[in-house]
Specification:
With 190 residues, the protein is α+β, with helices and mostly antiparallel strands. It has a single domain, classed as Alpha-Beta Complex (tt1808, chain A), CATH 3.90.1570. It has a six-stranded mixed β-sheet with strand order 3-6-8-9-10-11, with helices on both faces. Strand 10 and strand 11 form a beta hairpin. The protein is globular. The protein starts with 10 loop residues before the first helix and ends in a 7-residue tail after the last helix.
Length: 190
């Protein structure tokens, strides 16, 4: 067994590389996949969702995490970084590093042109294998649109397609409400 020597970077080298980086990486089936950097709209929407849900989750038995919390899908081996993830009850982590969540209750992905198809189809097929997952939200960046998938008692998923800025979405899995007007606050849309 050979081991590769680790490469150590100085602070200056690290900062030079990091300031050029545009992505995080996901892991699946032995491969690492670069993630695209987030746009201004993406960041505004994510922040708005965190603010809106974070306020409602105070004193509730749920924890909200931003895109730096990795989630593992045990059935497929996928390691990914949802834009927003909420775990209710006692959060479960892969190991003592407490940086890989195993039991998400609700996952939010903000769609971009490059990820929309993957988030809707392939990634959702992986997420559906997570026993604890009860809701999945897909949020558009270019129009007032939220796709809400809710797990039913028989294991099927019910889709609601919400397109009105005045709409309020009931998130039963976390006992919260999400107003699209709040989601898109300060986001310039055509």
């Amino acid at each position: 067994m050979s081991s590769r020597p680790k490469t150590y970077l100085t602070t200056e080298e690290y900062l030079a590389i990091e300031r050029q980086a545009e992505y995080k990486s996901e892991y699946f089936a032995g491969e690492v996949f670069a993630m695209v950097g987030a746009s201004r709209k993406h960041n505004l929407i994510a922040t708005n969702i965190v603010i809106a849900l974070g306020q409602q989750l105070k004193k509730k038995p749920c924890e909200l995490y931003t895109s730096d919390m990795r989630v593992r899908v045990p059935a497929t081996g996928l390691y990914t970084y949802p834009d927003v993830v909420i775990a209710c009850g006692e959060p479960e982590f892969e190991d003592e590093h407490v940086d890989t969540l195993l039991n998400p209750t609700l996952i939010v992905e903000i769609l971009s042109t490059s990820t929309a198809s993957y988030d809707r189809i392939k990634k959702f097929s992986y997420y559906r294998t997570v026993e604890s997952l009860s809701e999945y939200l897909l949020v558009a960046q270019d129009e007032y649109k939220l796709e809400q998938y809710v797990k039913q008692g028989d294991g099927r998923w019910l889709l609601s397609d919400i397109r009105s800025r005045e709409a309020i979405v009931e998130l039963s899995s976390i006992q919260c409400r999400l107003a699209l007007d709040d989601v898109y606050d300060k986001v310039a849309l055509p």
